[in-house]
């Protein structure tokens, strides 16, 4: 299979990667392996231009990881390719905020509804929806909120 993404490092990039892979300071193992793999894959005048199977055998990097690393180097550069990729989409905002926690605690500490001895997680979740505090909430979210607040209705 022919390589689509070829790595040709400049002497400055090569020096920086050699400094990373040969340094005595502590760096993440994955970053070290990737830096070493890039040095071995380098097809410039100073590089050894090893084949992918030889690099996989020498460094222990997985073949698909090496392929993605080659692609990323061509897209953003060798030093940026060693960094973690930024998150593409933002994380979901949590449904249960401090205000919702307060409502959950208030409901849990109040009198149980008629026909029940005590509040259950499902009853609390249903009550939050009934009061239009949230559109929906799971029993697990209610449980985690109560655990976090160390609520003790007794």
Characterise the protein shown here.
- The protein has two domains: 11-81; 98-149.
- It has helices at 11-21, 29-41, 52-59, 63-76, 78-81, 98-109, 121-130, 139-149.
- With 154 residues, the chain is mostly helical.
Features:
154 residues, mainly alpha, 54% helix, rod-shaped
SSE arrangement:
Blueprint: H1 11-21, H2 29-41, H3 52-59, H4 63-76, H5 78-81, H6 98-109, H7 121-130, H8 139-149
Parts with pLDDT < 50 across at least 5 consecutive residues: none
Strand and helix order: HHHHHHHH
- Beta percentage is under 5%
**Total helical segments:** 8
Write a short abstract of this structure:
By secondary structure, this protein is mostly helical. It is built from 8 helices and no strands.
């Amino acid at each position: 299979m022919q390589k689509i993404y070829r790595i040709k490092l400049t002497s400055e990039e090569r020096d920086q990667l050699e400094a990373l892979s040969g340094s005595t300071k502590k760096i993440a193992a994955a970053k070290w392996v990737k830096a070493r793999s890039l040095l071995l894959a380098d097809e410039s005048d100073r590089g050894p231009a090893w084949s992918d199977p030889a690099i996989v055998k020498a460094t222990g990097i997985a073949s698909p990881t090496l392929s993605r690393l080659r692609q990323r180097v061509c897209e953003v550069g060798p030093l940026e390719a060693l960094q973690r990729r930024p998150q593409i989409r933002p994380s979901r905002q949590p449904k249960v905020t401090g205000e919702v926690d307060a409502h959950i605690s208030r409901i849990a500490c109040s009198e149980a509804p008629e026909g029940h001895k005590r509040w259950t997680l499902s009853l609390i979740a249903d009550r939050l929806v009934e009061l239009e505090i949230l559109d929906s909430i799971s029993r697990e979210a209610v449980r985690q909120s109560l655990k976090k607040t160390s609520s003790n209705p007794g």
